[in-house]
Amino acid sequence: MRVRQRQARRLAVVPAFNEELTVAKVLDRLYDFVDELVVVDDGSTDATRAEIESWLPGHDEVRLLLHEQNKGMSEAYYSAFSDLRQRVKIGELDADDVVYTVDADGQHELSVLDDLHQLLIDENLDALLVRRDLSIYPIYKRVGNFAISAWASLWAGASLPDVESGYRIFRIGALAHALDYYRGYRYSETVEVAVVLKRLGYRVRTDVVVPVPVYRSRTRMRDVVIDLAMIPVAAWRSTRPLGWFGRLRALAVPAAVTAFPVAVVITGRRRLR
Predict the structure, then answer these.
(1) I want to staple 189 with a disulfide (CB 3.0 to 4.6 A). Which of 24, 31, 84, 184 is the partner?
(2) Could you give the CA distance from residue 126 to residue 69 in angstroms, rounded to a whole number?
(3) pTM of the entire predicted model
(4) What integer pLDDT is reported at residue 264 of this predicted model?
(5) Please, are residues 188 and 227 in contact by the beta-carbon 8 Å criterion?
């Protein structure tokens, strides 16, 4: 078992796109929880960047990354995580430092952040993927979340009850390793990194339920289709160290479960012709 040798530094990554009404409030609340904030303005077209820049004076421990054009949430996270990985390589950060991911729209309950952090440390976890209390969400959102989480669980080989949650805590070393096996597109970063971490054998908890103060969602049907497609891709990539035979054996069950209904549909259509 890995033993941490020093007090882990706390960092938080906050991607923001057109969140002018909430971003400063989120940063203000989050600042006291962390040793450093990493904020990514993902090409906002409203006053989000101006709000961030107005908030910066008096807050020294902030790293601001800028995308001149909107590249999507996954790309915002990838920019921030790649920057963290580089800082680990040069010794500026340690692999056992801890990074939170928090949305800029105020939907994450920050009052439990200390408790979540302590749980990560006490249980020597590599990641804690918060399970949101979705009771305030519309029924179609809850059904969709259940379906995509079940699909991700199948390919991860482990339970991922809320794979779309962006409220997470990672040990930076585990997160940096996971970057070798996924990239993310649009909103698929959350589902991909969850599958990759599970497939790589990291210690991950996914059952801690946290309330959601406000309901916000920008995902569309196209994003759902992308997530569904990228989940098996992430599983395939993360089994790369096993070699071809090992990869096929590791993914035999989800592949078979997927292939069976497809074969039934194809056979049925042929019989109807």
Answers:
(1) 184
(2) 32
(3) 0.90
(4) 43
(5) yes
Residue closest to 213 by CA, chosen among 146, 133, 119, 149: 133
pLDDT digits (tens, 9 = 90+) for 75-89: 999 999 999 999 999
Please say whether the beta carbons of 193 and 115 come within 8 A: no
Dihedral sign (CA 209, 215, 218, 222): positive
**269 CB-contact burial (10 Å; exposed 0-12 / middle 13-18 / buried 19+):** exposed
Using left for φ > 0, alpha for ψ between -120 and 50, and beta otherwise, residue 201 falls in left
Q: What is the pLDDT of residues 7-51, one digit of tens each?
A: 889 999 999 999 999 999 999 999 999 999 999 999 999 999 999
Cβ pair 94, 88 in contact under 8 A: yes
Q: Report DSSP letters for 188-214, one per residue.
A: THHHHHHHHHHHTT--EE---EE--SS
Instruction: Quote the CA–CA distance of 268 and 249 in Å, as a whole number.
Output: 29
Tokens of 17: 């796109």
The partner residues of 63 in beta bridges, in order of sequence, read 38
Residue with tokens 């160290």: 241
217 burial (CB, 10 Å; 0-12 / 13-18 / 19+) is middle
**How many whole angstroms separate alpha carbon 205 and alpha carbon 249?**
25
